[in-house]
Structure formats: C-alpha cells, structure tokens
Amino acid sequence: MLGYMEKINDGEGHPSSSHQALKGTSKWATSLENLLEDPEGVKRFREFLKKEFSEENVLFWLACEEFKKTQGKKQMQEKAKEIYMTFLSSKASSQVNVEGQSRLSETILETPHPLMFQKLQDQIFNLMKYDSYSRFLKSDIFLNHKKSEEQEENSPEAQTAAKRASRIYNT
C-alpha cells in the first residue's frame, strides 16, 4: 500500500520531486534487497560482479528466486536440475561456493519443492551482502551511475517539473 506522501503527483501523473520515494542509486544504497528488486540495479551489480569474477553469485540468487515461482512438478524438476548442473554440481559451469554443497545430491532433484535451495541461496545472499555489495557501493560502476542520475535531476527539464510541482502544492 502506498503511503500518502508517495501518492502526490505533479499534476501530470508524475510523483512530485519534493515528495518522491527513493529511487535509483539512492535506493540501491539503502540495502542489497532494494538493489536486487530493481532491474537496472541488478544489471549494474552483475556488471560489477563480472569484473570481480563472481557474477555466478547473483545469477544463482536470481535463478533461485525464479525457481520459487515455478509451477508444476515436471517444470520444477527441470529447473531444479538446471540450477544444480549450472551452479552446484562439481562439474558446474558457474559453480558457486557454498557450504554443504557436496551434501546436496542429485537425488533431491527428483522431489523438488519451492524452497529446496533456500539455505544455499541465503548463504550466497549473505556472501554478496557482506562482501561484494559494500565494494559495489564504492565502485566506479555505481558512482558513475549515481553521477549521471544527479546530472539528469539537475537538468533544466527536471528543474522545470519541480518548479511546476512546487507551484501546484504551494498555492
């Protein structure tokens, strides 16, 4: 449910800049969860992790999120096997480094359930949260994107919309 402040518009259906919720890099900087909810944030984070040779972590996390939404036993078995072969098997092309990985045998793939990868996904999330995420916030990828957002906000078009909005609400 939207809060009162988030519902205020500038008269043209756009949120008023004086009452706008955090977005873009400002929102990404508040938590890894917020970053992962934003497709542009995921794109930038993947770009960063690729340079760090750990993109498989976010890809695994995203695959697990998608897996939880899977309907039907056959589709679930197929996706579970794909996740296992891509990220968890000893022969995986994008192997993630998680504890207990060796104990997850292929037999579990025969009886899949939406949360079967949850413990491993949580380990990867924590690894990203306490390791990669903090470095991402200091990276050129993040800082340059933040700078371009600030330049857009300070453009004449953005200022005109803000002035229009303040006239509407301060009359």
Automatic annotation (TrEMBL):
GO MF annotation: an example: GTPase activator activity
The keyword Iron is assigned to this record: no
InterPro entries referenced in this protein's UniProt entry, alphabetically: RGS (IPR016137), RGS10/12/14-like (IPR046995), RGS10_RGS (IPR037879), RGS_sf (IPR036305), RGS_subdom1/3 (IPR024066), RGS_subdomain_2 (IPR044926)
Keywords from the UniProt entry: GTPase activation
TM annotation in the entry: none
Single GO BP term: regulation of G protein-coupled receptor signaling pathway
SMART domains per record: RGS
Keyword flag Cell membrane: no
Record-linked Pfam families: RGS (PF00615)
Region: Disordered, residue numbers: 1-23, 147-171
GO cellular component terms given for this protein: cytoplasm; nucleus; plasma membrane
Annotated RGS domain residues: 31-142
Family annotation (PROSITE patterns): RGS (PS50132)
Annotated SUPFAM superfamilies: Regulator of G-protein signaling, RGS
Name the record gives this protein: Regulator of G protein signaling 10
Organism of derivation: Junco hyemalis (Dark-eyed junco)
